[in-house]
Design a protein that fits this description.
The complex is a heterodimer of chains A (89) and B (65). Chain A has 89 residues and is an all-alpha fold. Chain A has one domain. Chain A contains three helices and no strands. In chain A, helix 1 packs antiparallel against helix 2 and helix 2 runs antiparallel to helix 3. The relative contact order of chain A is 0.12. Chain B is mostly helical. Chain B has one domain. In chain B, 85% of the residues lie in helices and 0% in strands. Chain B is built from two helices and no strands. The termini of chain B are close together. The chains are: A mainly alpha (89), B mainly alpha (65).
Chain lengths: 89, 65
């Protein structure tokens, strides 16, 4: 029962990720694209966590942790580039 | 005991999926940058938080007594 529900939640999250990709492509400003990519990164992190239940392997939770860190650094560096025009001195 | 665990985990996950849905609809339909940011904060806090609570309640050990 739980596996079937998790598969349905995974499919729904994939569809919602593609719906967010619409805003990432067609966003009028750069801030819209940053927001959309941040949301897609959160969804992919949650999908990796749910896959760890479906495949019954706890190692995928470490993958989700590293993916969350990489997504945060992506958002932070793109925002800094947008604000200052350069990434480092 | 396993059925109870599955039901509680699935309840939290469906709640998180609802907040992801709300945040994505807000991201697509709202008119301004700041309102879109306001909508997607629901994805980042409540949606991811509820699904992670569901995952934690699945993997936690006292269910296997």
């Amino acid at each position: 029962m739980l596996e079937m529900g998790i598969w349905l939640i995974l499919i729904a999250l994939a569809i919602l990720s593609f719906a967010s990709l619409y805003r990432s492509i067609k966003g009028p400003s750069v801030a819209d694209r940053i927001i959309a990519i941040n949301v897609i990164s959160t969804k992919v992190t949650v999908m990796i966590l749910l896959i760890s239940i479906v495949l019954n392997q706890t190692g995928y939770m470490d993958v989700a942790l590293i993916y969350a860190l990489v997504g945060f650094i992506t958002t932070l560096s793109v925002s800094k580039y947008l604000a200052k025009g350069k990434l480092y001195e | 005991m396993s059925v109870l665990r599955d039901l509680i985990s699935l309840t939290f996950m469906v709640g998180g999926l609802f907040f992801f849905f709300v945040g994505t609809v807000g991201l697509i339909r709202l008119p301004d940058v700041l309102t879109r940011m306001h909508a997607t904060t629901k994805c980042d806090t409540l949606g991811a938080g509820l699904i992670v609570v569901g995952v934690v309640l699945y993997w936690v050990s006292p269910w296997q007594v």
